[in-house]
Write a structure and sequence with these properties.
184 residues; mainly alpha; Rna Polymerase Sigma Factor, Chain: A; Arc Repressor Mutant, subunit A; 2 domains; 8 helices; 0% strand
Length: 184
C-alpha cells in the first residue's frame, strides 16, 4: 500500500514529538485530542477533558514504545482512552457522593455560551443515551471515528463478530428511537 499524503505528515509529527519538540507534541494533540474527547463524551465520562488530557499524557509518555503507522496510532490511542475511561468509572464508583451543599462553587458561564456549546453534544448524547455502553462505544468508533471492524475489535478487546453485533443492535435501537419520534 502506497503511503497517502497524510502518512508523511503523521510520520513527521511523530518523529518531532519523539525528539522532544513541542511543535510535534502540539501537532499530535491538535490532531487527536478532539477525537478522544468526543469518544469520552459519548462514553458518558464525568469529565471528558480530564480523560482526554490523561490519554494524551499517557500516549506522550510512551511514544518511544509505539511502533506503526497512523492507523496503528489511532488504535493505540483509543485503547489508552478506553482504559482511562474504565479506570475513571471504577474510581467514580468508589468515591463518596457529595450533596449539593458540599459542592464547591464554580464560575458560571453565560447561558448563551453554555447553550451553544452543549447543543450539538446534547443532541448526540440524547440519541446515544438509549444504547448500552458497549453499543455506544462501537457506534462512536465505527461511525464517528470511521474505524474498521478489526480496529474497533482490537480497541474494545472483543471479537469482530461481537463488534458487528453491537453495531447492528445499536443502529437498530437508534432507528427505533428516530421512528418513534417521527410518529409522535
Amino acid at each position: 500500500m502506497a503511503p497517502t499524503q497524510k502518512q508523511p505528515l503523521f510520520d513527521e509529527m511523530l518523529r518531532s514529538a519523539r525528539d522532544g519538540d513541542g511543535v510535534g507534541f502540539d501537532s499530535l494533540y491538535r490532531n487527536y485530542a478532539g477525537r478522544i474527547q468526543a469518544f469520552a463524551i459519548a462514553r458518558g465520562a464525568a469529565d471528558p477533558e480530564v480523560v482526554t488530557n490523561d490519554t494524551m499524557l499517557r500516549a506522550f509518555q510512551n511514544l518511544n514504545r509505539f511502533s506503526g503507522d497512523e492507523a496503528a496510532f489511532v488504535r493505540w490511542i483509543f485503547t489508552i482512552a478506553r482504559n482511562r475511561l474504565i479506570d475513571a468509572h471504577r474510581s467514580e464508583t468508589r468515591r463518596p457522593v457529595l450533596s449539593d451543599d458540599d459542592a464547591p462553587e464554580q464560575p458560571v458561564a453565560s447561558a448563551e455560551d453554555e447553550a451553544l456549546e452543549h447543543m450539538s453534544r446534547d443532541a448526540v448524547m440524547d440519541r446515544l443515551s438509549l444504547l448500552t455502553v458497549e453499543q455506544r462505544e462501537v457506534i462512536v468508533l465505527r461511525l464517528i471515528e470511521d474505524l474498521s471492524i478489526s480496529d474497533v475489535a482490537e480497541i474494545v478487546n472483543r471479537p469482530a463478530t461481537a463488534v458487528k453485533a453491537l453495531q447492528r443492535r445499536g443502529l437498530q435501537a437508534l432507528q427505533r428511537q428516530i421512528l418513534a419520534e417521527e410518529v409522535s
